[in-house]
Amino acid sequence: MSNNFRHPVILDIARKTGKVTVEGLAEHFGVTHQTIRRDLSELADMGRLERVHGGAVIASGTINIGYEDRRQLNAEAKIQIAKACAQQIPSGISLFLNIGTSTEAVAQELLTHKDLMVVTNNMNVAQILAGNPNCEVIVTGGHLRRSDGGLVGNLATETIRKFKFDLAVVGCSALDRDGDLLDFDIQEVSVSQAILNQSRKTFLVADHTKFSRSAPARIASLSDIDVFFTDRPVPDDLFKACRDWHTEVVCGV
Predict the structure, then answer these.
(1) pLDDT per residue as tens digits for the range 48-106
(2) Greatest Cα pair distance in the chain
């Protein structure tokens, strides 16, 4: 069976189960693991699937993919983005880190920073930074989203409005070609907008897969961001727009 025939079958399985594995598909089609990996890469390049460790998940639309799959998605690039971002975060500042696997990667890179005050609505970030004795950690409170440890809702938003941060590092679920930052949860969008409003400077950490995803709720624009850290060159028209907006793009991970 050629890949032209395998692709729609793979997509059909992914739609029904939410996830496909290299091992399972290789057994299903009677082909090698290498052949299936090539199929999944081709479907990912077309924006039909998103690669995760050991397989792929259906590309997002109105529902986000699971937290563990998000954490594995493009994991090495997230680490490199986080390192580049952390290098531009000085010690001795107040900092907000929001919900997301990319901001959690940034938290890992801050374990040797000194005299930080970090406010977060991400329980995972709080747990990571508990390992830095030179970092004061404040958790916003709010409604706990058990799927990813995020805190959302009015309590989180009201807590954020009591601060003025030197810097906020935020992530997003998707980026469109107009430069809009998108998310799935409208409660999280309200929290993210409060974070941006209460910060003197803003960093966005988002890998290239965010350009192949879609989400229904708009957070803000890249024009509202000071520095955008990513792992691959952004589309030429968007790069020119970022230059006009005075949004620095840090790329080439």
Answers:
(1) 787 878 888 776 554 455 666 666 667 888 999 999 999 999 999 999 999 999 999 99
(2) 61
pTM of the model: 0.76
The per-residue pLDDT for range 191-223, each reduced to its tens digit, is 999 999 999 999 999 998 888 777 889 999 999
Range of the domain at 50: 3-59
Q: Count other C-beta atoms under 10 Å from residue 253's C-beta.
A: 18
User: Residue 64: inside a domain, yes or no?
Assistant: no
Domain count, the chain: 2
Please give the Cα distance from 158 to 162 (Å, whole number): 7
82 and 206 fall within a common domain = yes
Flag whether 65 is in a domain.
no
Structural domain contains residue 67: no
